[in-house]
Amino acid sequence: MKWIIDLAYVGVAIVFILGLKAMSSPVTARKGIVWAGWAMIVATLVTLFWPGMQNFAWMILAIVIGGSLAWVSGKRVAMTDMPQMVAIYNGMGGGAAAAIAALEFARGEVHGTMVTILAVLGALIGSVAFSGSCVAFAKLQGIMKKAFRLPAQNQVNMALAAVTGILGLAIITAEHPGMFAIALFFLLALALGAIVTAPIGGADMPVVISLLNAFTGLAVGFEGYVLGNPALVVAGIVVGASGTLLTQLMAKAMNRPIKNVIFAPISGEAVEGEAIEGTMREIGALDAAASMRYASKVIIVPGYGMAVAGAQHKVWEMSQLLEEAGVEVVFAIHPVAGRMPGHMNVLLAEAGVPYDKIFDLDEINADFAQADVALIIGANDVVNPVARTDKSSPIYGMPILNADMAHNVIVVKRGKGSGYSGIENALFYKENCRMFYGSAQKAIGEVIQHVKEMEG
Amino acid sequence: MEGIVYLYVFVLAAFVGYEVISRVPVILHTPLMSGSNFIHGVVLIGAMVVMGHADPDSPLELAIGFIAVLLGAANAAGGYVVTERMLAMFKSGKKGGE
Q1: What is the pLDDT of residues A184-220, one digit of tens each?
Q2: Where are the alpha helices (DSSP H) in A228-372?
Q3: Between chain A and chain B, how many beta carbons pairs sit less than 8 Å apart?
Q4: ipTM of the complex
Q5: Interchain CB distance below 8 Å, B41 and A233
Q6: If you average pLDDT over every residue of chain A, what do you get?
Q7: ∠ CA B73-A80-A322 to the nearest 5 degrees?
Q8: Which of A22, A47, A295, B96 is the most exposed place for a label (fewest CB within 10 A)?
Q9: Which one, of A239, A234, A187, A184, lies nearest residue A215 by Cα?
Q10: Given its phi and psi angles, is residue A282 left (phi above 0), alpha (psi -120 to 50 degrees) or beta?
Q11: What part of A 336-355 touches B (C-beta under 8 Å)?
């Protein structure tokens, strides 16, 4: 019986890898996740036939409760809230890996140096991923609003990490580690994840979520070794490696080395950039409509503000109207627009914007100088020119969209507040920039009305 | 299995993970992160195996096992739904655009 299960696991591992590969192209992506989904069902079903298993009633109850809660919440959540859902589900995976380690310790089933080392490492990483992801979820969901920062944050982090590490070593070297030491180890690891994540600002969250995702993969892989389960090892390590690479790509796009994200978080209060001179100038819907209707090229820079307002459908309707009038309209997407790389592409795809109208930073930055209008909708930090000029700014060096190079810049914005990172935006004070206050949904709706009237 | 064999598995799996993602366009990064989040939901089967071998008379072991399975199942189910929803959008987006 066991060999059938083992063989099924091999198949599952292969399908997972093929599924991930399929997900790397827009054409096959959907097939990829469906394959992987079937593989997961097969893996779960064959595991029920594992020799010598008991406690089926409780096990199935746990699967039904956990699975259905997650299924329903995943179905219901709005597209804009997807990043925090990824964070929370990821945290649960980390928690599961940590709980596996805890149960193995409680049963006294952890024998041998290598097994103990990986069990402890998996427990540590899994616990950090669990509590860190819960904090990330709380922040993105708006449950935890303020950045929570201890007076000597880095020293506290280091001290806590050191104590946890020493305790972990003690467990590894001890002949029969006591229950108290193990429980304390888990508590410290959980506290570590929460304390490290708590001060990290919203703008850095995607990198953190991606890092924690890679962590969970590693924890799953390590616990797979402890259990002697190659399917867990392969799937876990594949995710650990790809997650690490993805984290690096994101960090690079934001010009925020991973060590800075964790040890030098951007937080609103700490910012003291150069004072910005000039005043903001307002523009109304009619003028905004006219300047775009009679432009030859408009570049739209969407940000999270557009997504929150749910204005992507209106924006696409407006672009189509402008195109019918002979205006070239394209979208410029910053790598970290939205809450994660690619999040904004998902939201625009939802509204029906075709891929060939969407350009990323490297492709479009040179074009801004030829654009008549750069329309910025609910984006802020990603178009802030201080990232190029002001060395004292925390976002200095971050690649930005050169929207300020366009002949005219129109900024659709809800109010006068600063961006997610809390930094003043020098673009808003520039000569060629006009502020169009209002929620994106309503503002673009008015522009559509005026453009239609101009056709009439 | 021998420890050293697993070391090979670790190394090869790491290369696979690296290779698989290095050719992904930026627009798919979020769905892919979500997809890989689903894949490590396979932790569910590990949780099932340990819970299946927990002592039925020990409430502590049962409780930890229950939590492990519950969290693993939530990871797998939630990861799937979210990824599928994101990728479904790409499909309809393509149709609408062409």
Answers
A1: 999 999 999 999 998 887 667 888 899 999 999 999 9
A2: 230-254, 258-263, 285-293, 304-309, 312-324, 343-351, 361-364
A3: 393
A4: 0.91
A5: no
A6: 87
A7: 145
A8: B96
A9: A239
A10: beta
A11: 338, 340-343, 345-346, 348-355
Q: What is the DSSP letter of A246?
A: H
**pTM of the entire predicted model:** 0.81
pLDDT higher than 60, residue A268: no
CA B25, CA B32: separation in Å to the nearest integer? 10
Q: Please enumerate in sequence order all residues whose Cβ is within 8 A of that of A71, keeping only pairs 6 or more positions apart, or say none.
A: B77, B78, B81
Taken as a whole, chain B contains a residue count of 98
In this structure, the number of other CB atoms found within 10 A of the CB of residue A224 comes to: 29
Do the beta carbons of residue A161 and residue A127 sit within 8 Å?
Answer: no
Provide mean pLDDT across the span A154-177: 89
Q: What's the CA gap between B50 and B45, in Å, rounded? A: 9
Q: How far is B56 from chain A (nearest CA, A)?
A: 6
Is residue B8 less than 8 Å (CB to CB) from chain A? no
Q: What is the C-alpha separation between A244 and A251, in angstroms, rounded?
A: 10
Residues of A classed as catalytic: 381
Q: What single-letter amino acid sits at A250?
A: M
DSSP H/E element including A53: none
Spatial separation of the C-alpha atoms in residues A118 and A178, rounded to whole Å: 18
pLDDT at B21: 76
Specify the range with the lowest mean pLDDT, choosing from A52-66, A145-159, B35-49, B59-73. Answer: A145-159
* Joined tokens for residue A31: 């097939």
Rounded percentage of chain A residues whose pLDDT exceeds 70: 93
Q: Do B42 and A223 touch (CB under 8 A)?
A: no
